[in-house]
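seq as requested:
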Amino acid sequence: TSCEVAPDPMRRLFVLYFPDKVLAENIAVRMHMTKRQKETMVKWAASDIGLENILEEKLRRKVIYRYGKDFCINKLLIDAAKTQIVPDNLIGLISEIKETAVPVFPVSGRDILQKGIDGGQIGQFLDKLEERWIAGDFSLSKEELLAGI
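struct tokens:
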């Protein structure tokens, strides 16, 4: 598996300033970035995910699930630059991130409806079940999650 990380001008720009959310938005506007580039810069700035969230495997799985592999790799590199702490196993970590299977939440709105829950409450139930599933390190099955309703 290749663990090369391509140079990224946006990541380099971010590391020059380590902007907060407002400055990230300003930089994006001044640099005439695309909407997607601006969203990425702001997401990096607004995120309070640090190295500790990426170095620990269970926490890293949560970051990958919520934000994606690219975000996780970029935050690892950005925070290593910011803290001046480069993990000994940086190359291995990047490989692990790239190889991580992103879990798929096993419950749908239809499953909740079939449990007799009112349609207006489906979103709330899905959110609660998803939080339980994430807290359980993605190990609870659809049946185990639905049994709690």
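The mean pLDDT is 93.
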